């Protein structure tokens, strides 16, 4: 396991799913984490899980699409612990499958507000702080949908291509400043929503997993472990990488 002891960072949308797993994984590696989510109960539960495991976690409740809130979170990490060593910009939403021509503009706008402008706002303030420090590592949660076409998911697909573009451009702009910027590209991951779908639609679940080379979905902890590694010194020469964590789906050219 990478050693993140003495490192301080923030994680967005840490109230459930990949964000919660990330909080637990960074803390297990020794880091102190400032967690946020729009749902107070979930993120407080995550913080308690971290503390129960012997880690250090603080919480802020807010909307990850709010750039002022992003600036406040970055400032809070520095106020609490002196530096922002890493950030996991994980917040993102999807929507039900709908053909392109039937997609409502409001869905595009909602998804761009959080997935793109939310990620951009956090990145901007993290990069400003990390540039002052001369060090830092950012990992964004993208998706395999950001590397391929995703029939039925046009707005989500477009937002994740945007996240990948922002990741690689920031990686190049800040590579000489001691700052690394990478993304994880999860394939299907068994978060609460997908676990409920697995229970309610077992045949569809079987069909989806049968098409994944590894014949299963990811556990959220597998996404989290990749995020921790990308932010750790073990990945010191890795920047601009869009890391598939997908059981082989990407090699098949699937979303
Ligand atoms: N689960 C998957 O199969 C999968 C696959 C590829 C990519 N992803 C990406 O992983 C990331 C996390 O997804 P997940 O499946 O773990 O989610 P999840 O649905 O399990 O959890 C999402 C969390 O985000 C919070 N949230 C929602 N809107 C928010 C907002 N505006 N501000 C702050 N918090 C907000 C929710 O309260 C919840 O705690 C997303 O960016 C998603 O696109 C997920």
Automatic annotation (TrEMBL):
Protein's UniProt keywords contain Isomerase: no
Keywords carried by this UniProt record: Oxidoreductase
GO molecular function ontology, one term from the record: oxidoreductase activity
InterPro entries: NAD(P)-bd_dom_sf (IPR036291), Sc_DH/Rdtase_CS (IPR020904), SDR_fam (IPR002347)
SUPFAM superfamilies documented for this protein: NAD(P)-binding Rossmann-fold domains (SSF51735)
NCBIfam families on file: PRK07231.1 (NF005559)
Family listed: Belongs to the short-chain dehydrogenases/reductases (SDR) family.
Record protein name field: Short-chain dehydrogenase
Provenance organism: Brachybacterium faecium (strain ATCC 43885 / DSM 4810 / JCM 11609 / LMG 19847 / NBRC 14762 / NCIMB 9860 / 6-10)
